[in-house]
From TrEMBL:
<dbReference type="InterPro" id="IPR036249">
    <property type="entry name" value="Thioredoxin-like_sf"/>
</dbReference>
<dbReference type="InterPro" id="IPR041737">
    <property type="entry name" value="SoxW"/>
</dbReference>
<dbReference type="InterPro" id="IPR013766">
    <property type="entry name" value="Thioredoxin_domain"/>
</dbReference>
<dbReference type="InterPro" id="IPR012336">
    <property type="entry name" value="Thioredoxin-like_fold"/>
</dbReference>
<dbReference type="Pfam" id="PF13098">
    <property type="entry name" value="Thioredoxin_2"/>
</dbReference>
<feature type="signal peptide">
    <location>
        <begin position="1"/>
        <end position="23"/>
    </location>
</feature>
<feature type="domain" description="Thioredoxin">
    <location>
        <begin position="15"/>
        <end position="168"/>
    </location>
</feature>
<keyword id="KW-0732">Signal</keyword>
<protein>
    <submittedName>
        <fullName>Thioredoxin</fullName>
    </submittedName>
</protein>
């Protein structure tokens, strides 16, 4: 079977863009803060942290791209990447065949040199790239052009899809959202197929904050029917009493990210459907949670697997306006003691 056929089979079976949900969609992750002390896999590049030299090796070896991994110690989601995704031999083989991977610490103090020749610390690099969540990957073509970014943890089948999206150059013709949807076009769902909560505001979705600021931040839940990850969000993190208390301080709306019948007035005052807004935002993962301030500016988004501690922490970050004092969520979180 070809790689493309193998991937298509996985997507059809597991993708969650309308396919029946299965347990493999969401491997168990306990994101309670704890000592983990992760080490990079032995096959990561032994880099001197000069990305120009790392990219030169990519060209010499005929690889498709340089993959810059950004993680951190004591990160349960990084642990899942190493112990679940990289425990699958085909993923490791495919990654090593097409990419050279260089590992960085999102809070690291080591000096590095960027592709532009600038000297800075790993921490400064992560801040400059706006990396709020680990693990994260940034893929660079052999000429140094950044072509794709994957934020947060994604289960093996979606991670494998991201690798093939870059390795086969699909980014040249379509977004990752389009690539996934093409493999398994999402069917139409009745709105009742979504998980409803009492705190979700009813229609109409008049979210415009561009003219008159609101009195509270906004949280938009982009979801879809037949979504195992959405089910877990609603039964686990959204079943926590403290999370519910924090959400009471937000305006909260739920949208079907594929709906062409749901009109929305966006926080910046545009009129479009829920699907068109999701496309405009580049969303490919359900559920995606996007948080906006009182004036309609996006603060942060969670577009990857999320469990209780991360969600609760992000809610606190937004409500305490931590984004005004810290350049990224990660920096704020470390100042709060993890």
């Amino acid at each position: 079977m070809t790689l493309a056929g193998w991937l298509c089979g996985l997507l059809v079976a597991f993708l969650g863009l309308g396919a029946p949900a299965v347990a493999k969609d969401q491997p168990p992750i306990d994101d309670t803060p704890r000592l983990i002390g992760l080490q990079h896999p032995h096959w990561f590049e032994l880099s001197l942290l000069d990305l120009r030299e790392d990219l030169e090796r990519v060209r010499e070896q005929g690889k498709r791209a340089l993959a810059v991994y950004v993680g951190m110690d004591d990160c349960p989601y990084c642990e899942a990447l190493f112990e679940v995704n990289f425990a699958e031999p085909d993923i490791v083989e495919y990654t090593r065949r097409h990419f050279n991977v260089v590992g960085l610490d999102v809070l690291g103090s080591r000096e590095m040199t960027t592709l532009e020749g600038e000297s800075m610390t790993e921490r400064e690099f992560a801040v400059g790239k706006g990396l709020n969540f680990t693990p994260a990957f940034i893929f660079y073509e052999p000429d140094g052009t950044p072509v794709f970014r994957l934020r947060g943890y994604h289960s093996p089948y979606r991670f494998r899809a991201a690798l093939e999206y870059v390795a086969d150059g699909h980014y040249e013709n379509e977004t990752f959202r389009e690539y996934l949807a093409r493999a398994d076009p999402p069917p139409r769902f009745d709105p009742d197929d979504l998980n409803h909560q009492d705190f979700f505001a009813p229609k109409p979705f008049a979210l415009d904050r561009s003219r008159i600021p609101a009195d509270r931040p906004l949280a938009v839940f982009f979801e879809q029917g037949e979504c195992h990850a959405c089910d877990i969000l609603h039964t686990e993190p959204l079943g926590d009493e403290q999370v519910l208390e924090l959400l009471d301080l937000f305006e909260v709306v739920q949208l079907d990210m594929w709906s062409e019948e749901t009109p929305v007035r966006t926080p910046d005052g545009r009129s479009m459907t829920a699907r068109a807004w999701a496309e405009d935002l580049g969303l490919f993962y359900a559920p995606t949670l996007i948080f906006f301030d009182e004036a309609g500016e996006e603060i942060i988004r969670i577009d990857s697997v999320v469990r209780l501690h991360r969600l609760r922490s992000v809610l606190e970050y937004v409500l305490t306006r931590g984004y005004e004092d810290y350049p990224t969520y990660q920096r704020w979180r470390m100042e709060q003691g993890g």
